Amino acid sequence: MALNLKRKRAEDLESRKNPKLDEVMDVNSENEEHGENESTHDDSEDSGSEGEGVEWSWKGRRDASKSKNPAPTGEEVRAIRDATDLYRSSSFKLQVRDKILTPCCPTVRPKLSRAPPLEKFLLKLHTFLMQLPAVEPQHPLEAARKLLKKGVAVPYCLPLPTEDTNWKVSFEKPEDITLVGSWPNKVSVKAKDGLNTASTSLFRCQTACSKKRIISTRGFSRKRRSISPHSPTRFEAPRDPRLTKLMDPVTDFTKLNARVCIIPTISTSSPISLHRLSPSHANIRVNSGEEGVHHPSPLYNNALLTSYSPKPHLLAMYNHIQSIPAYADALTLLRIWANQRGFGEGSKLSVKGFENAGNLWPALLELVISGEEPSSSGAVNRKPLGKGLSSYQLFKAALSCLAKHDFIKNPALVKSIATHKFPASEYQEHSSATLVDSSSLVNALAYVPLGCIDMIRHEAWKTLQTLYSSSLAIDPFTDVFLHDHRDVATRFDIVFQVDLSKAKARKLSPHESLDFGSATNHLLYNMNYILRKALGDRIHAVAFLQPSSTSDAYPSTSSTIFVGLVLNPTHAFNLTRPALAEFQELWGSKSEMRRFKDGRIAESVVWDVKTADERSHVPAMVVRHILQWHFGLSEEHVQTWQSAYDSVIRLPKEIATKYVQGAGSAMGFKGAMQAFDRLVKQVKALEGQIPLSLVNISATSESLRYTSAFNPVPLTQSLACPINIVFEFEQSAKWPDELKAIQKIKLAFFEGIATGLMNSVPGTKASVVLGLGGYHGCQRATLLDRILDDHGPMPHVVVPKKRKQAERKGKEYLDAQEAKEVYDRRFIHAPRHHRAVAALSHQYPAFSGTCRLVKRWFASHWFLGGHVSEEVVELLCAQIFVLDGKYVGSDADIPENTLSVVPSTKERGFAMVMRFLSEWKWEEGGLYVCLYGPKKEGEGEGETGAKKVEPKASSGGVWTVATEVDKDGKVWTKGGPDGIVARRIRALAGATWSYLQTIENGTFNVQGMFIHPTQDYDFVVQLNPSVLPRYVHNIAANEGLLGKGKFANARAKDQDQDLVLPGFDPAKSLFTDLQRTYSDTFRLFADPYGGDAFGAVWDPTLKEPRPFRVLGGFSSVPVKKESEKAKDKIERLGSGLIKAVVKQR
């Protein structure tokens, strides 16, 4: 936190007051909970670096320094560095303190004032359990039948008992009951989605398990039967069916939102030797056909060890809280971070393997604080960081450990006083990933699929990038702790919905199924493992997602699971896969022998794609093939939405097929770029035929920077979309000094270029087209500056002040002002913007597709062109990719960790832009986009960040989107959107974002996001689609019309070339006329991509009398039927084009 040191200057040193530095007190301090005075300072080395509870005094400094401004002490310097270097800002530190670590924060921790009803219930429960009568030993099936009559079903573990089972079950009252979990140590954190906070009781069985009972799950079956006889409650076992908890139905503890679980555990006096529970020991007997060969059962053994661990974990956490001042707060920060990213319980999709993984987070903090156990292999182990770190430092250290430590290749055993009983090599050989704390032998990562471990590593990297980057437009605190990051649309590049009802593994191991506790767990773990192996370096993570809130010991696992891929764009879209070990076994019929360019002959997999868009489908092709080959799931059981997104930015199949068949040149962006390059060569070859040399030809069209909503196609009768370019000639002193004369000279230049092209290139037709008139068509900046300058057009003539003010209100001045804005935007900003956006399209593979989808969304909701420019849409998309601009314009390769933060597919990029638009508070400040390079310190702060906007209904653009060359942020937003349109954009983006969440419930339809609601308009102008040239782009085009008339003849015949009119769009022309004519009457909206309707909203001020003024553009007397007259005029203006004007309200 920035320090506010107040020093009073005075000549008399004795009159100076002792200044004090009020430092933020640590709300998590132990003394604060007891109401003790916290104004003293401990100078020990173990003090936290946050400066908790410290009152700074300057005693003795008068004698130490006689200067007027004495240097700060070491403690003050450390506090200053914490605020600037550690937290990056003082506001971040205050937010962490006030919004999370405050004990009374209702959104983070349960209120202790509501605890008495829960404590009263726990005392009654303790008395009830200790008074339960014993039940005699009996056959497991007989006991289950008796309980079934009472409405209690006993969920025995696999293999289920039969009539020939020779072991029995019984019940005896517990020898001890202990309250465990996070509640006793007051480190509980509220669960997501309103789920209850667990308050857990420990049920320790008095009857010890024998050595034989650990064979073939007998011990777990006896545990389940022991908690069943007197229990009207339900069972719960989210991760492992063998680790059953008993859920008490009482949940009303005076709004405490807590639940009580009873966990049966194994007594410490059990004769089971711990060496029999090592990861390499075989405790499951399966007839595999091999005499005397029994395979290890690491997961089963880990489940047994978990039955010993609740009380040791409780005591270990208590010792950490007492010995490490910041431990409890660091654990709170870590759990909140995990809950916000689905690494826990919740009704929304959560990452598989982390449900009920509460002991993982204390083990991770302990690893950071205490370090790793020394390894016999000589590997470099993590060193301890000590106990004196602050809570925020411990939190960042834990994230760094998750991001950098490979728990799969390097097992992590926390350093303990006594050496761990099982060596790290044993865990590495028999466990997929390993993290063992110091108080038990339980592997906290035993149940987590490998792809999900990659996912938490990826999330830790993303969070560290957010915390370390000081130039992000988003608030780091909000992004790290407040935002819900569980939505799959912005989290994963590709999302699959997999129906498991028909899934069957090609190779099935009964022993492994028993070791996992259920066939479903085994199937999902193997599926994740094989997908991770097949995708290889194409991905950063492959995560399995399921709702984790279940209440059954044998959960009726949903037949649907979601698979999320975080792609590595460097390798994700490669068409060839090199050979790996067991290559043919992994790929099956897809594997084939191929000869490569370097002469090698090897097994490989090649994916066939026909278009550039299909290349982004390669990872999805891999997933579909693997699920088909290894698990028998056909394409109808594996759903993804990539093809549906592609369809909204493609021509209809009927039209696209005709283009491909009749194409005489390359199609799409490649064809447009080739045509532009040919034109540049042809124009440069005209040197000598025009008076001035051509210096540069700049492209300014979206079709030449890969961001147009639809692929460019050759000009036809139905699609005549021109591509704009800018010619720059050499300077000359022979230009005239009058603007109109310059216009005529420029027209002569264009005529010369057109004639030269037609003479040099046979078959070429070139025409000179006049613009809107005035100064718009062709300008000279010097003369415009003279008109706009304070000295007037003739600097040597002194102009009176009154005359100067009158000239500023004249038509010439206003026209020149508008022309100067057009000149700057068209000839200075547009070419520069084009080059920057084109570079981003090459640097980030998903940027182009994201722009195309977002433009399609803006157009389909009737904003693009009329209210929102295409350039500002590209800036909105760019800020998702460039972040702080560190690698913009750099030749250096972008690190993979940085690339993993930005979207790798257009679908994810589109979702991120929609979320941003739904949350962007443009009224409070603008947006700064690092489009041309890294953001310099202080840049973009004063201009846009702190500038508030007070929009009016009739004002110009309210968005402020600034760049390095546009400090004011108004080049592309001066004309719109205004306040009304900007609020509607935010509302529709919020609705789109909410609709994206329906991916989880299976009702999501991509096209539904692009269907515009029209019920809010006062009237709708319906157009005749049969006369609209761009109707083929309509989001919901009538297929019957596409096969008739001009739409069927996609390519014009030679004899009809004269009918091709570049840029001719009657719907757009009508929209422009109506918008200009009735700008004071109603607000008009339309879809420029084949829209067959306009929407209009009446200006509400029309209902009130207006003062009379000359050339007001409207009648000053309210008329009841004015709307009817306006509709008649509209129909007359659009005669032959308008089908009907429908009044809606």
Automatic annotation (TrEMBL):
Superkingdom, natural source: Eukaryota
Compositional bias segments (type: Basic and acidic residues): 9-23, 31-42
Single GO molecular function: RNA binding
UniProt-annotated stretches for the region Disordered: 1-76, 220-239
A Pfam family per the record: Nrap
Species of origin: Ephemerocybe angulata
Extent of Acidic residues compositional bias: 43-53
Annotated keywords: Nucleus, Ribonucleoprotein, Ribosome biogenesis, RNA-binding, rRNA processing
GO BP: rRNA processing; tRNA export from nucleus
Family according to the record: Belongs to the NRAP family.
Cellular compartments annotated: Nucleus, Nucleolus
Protein's name in the database: U3 small nucleolar RNA-associated protein 22
CC annotations in GO: CURI complex; small-subunit processome; UTP-C complex
Domain Nrap protein: 251-322, 327-483, 490-631, 658-842, 844-1011, 1015-1141
